[in-house]
Amino acid sequence: FLWTLRNIGDSHAAMSAGSSESTKDKILQSNVSKYFSDPQCYFQVNGQYVRNKLKVILFPFLHRGHWTRITEPIGGRLSYKPPAFDINALDLYIPLMSFGIYVVLAGFTLGLIGKFSLEALSLQFTKGLFGWFLQVLLLKVSLYSLGSGEAPLLNIVAYAGYAFTGMCVAVKGRNM
After folding, report:
1. With the C-alpha atoms ordered 56, 58, 59, 60, is the resulting torsion angle positive or negative?
2. Contact at 8 Å (CB) between 65 and 131?
3. Quick check: 43 pLDDT over 60?
4. Separation CA 110–CA 57 (nearest Å)
5. CA-CA distance, 24 to 30, in Å (whole number)?
6. CB atoms within 10 A of CB 8
7. How many CB atoms lie within 10 A of CB 142?
8. Of 24-28, 92-96, 111-115, where does mean pLDDT reach its minimum?
9. What phi and psi, each to the nearest 5 degrees, are found at residue 72?
């Protein structure tokens, strides 16, 4: 009889531990998704999206569409469409590629003036990352001071990273 009570108690404890684990997972997932959204969706791009998004970034006054994101119902709630299907969606592909191209162009510029070295290139890389971090920090503080600080961090990183696209054009223009 005691063995049965003990098994019932153990199974009840296991069930409650399992439910608390799933509750913990749900709480963790909701808190993580508040600050970090799914990073995979930031890289769902295609060639047409990249061309059109670069036009919007570099020449925003030529954009003839709406500026709001397109939503679609998924599982009973509204979700944003991925970047491949929405020109206004945020992506991390363009900021990361722009940052890489910026570092390469900075190295090319250093080579043109005869000051290229790995140390100088790593300094440009570090300065670029530090500038990106400062932009993210400034945007986060600005949003927080305006009372809207709950934007996902990857969205802010994407917005700040779009600046490297214009910087690439400026560095390329300077080299000509």
Report:
1. positive
2. no
3. yes
4. 27
5. 10
6. 10
7. 12
8. 24-28
9. -145, 145
Please give the Cα distance from 2 to 110 (Å, whole number): 80
The answer on pLDDT for 150 being more than 90 is: no
Question: Phi and psi of 117, rounded to 5°?
Answer: -155, 165
52 is written with which tokens?
């059109």
Output the pTM of the full model.
0.77
According to DSSP H, which parts of 70-152 are helical?
93-112, 118-145
- CB distance 158 to 42 below 8 Å: yes
Going from the C-alpha of 125 to that of each of 118, 131, 164, the distances in angstroms are 10, 10, 12
Half-sphere exposure of 161 (CA within 13 A, CB side): 20
Q: Residue 22 corresponds to which tokens in the numbers above?
A: 């799933």
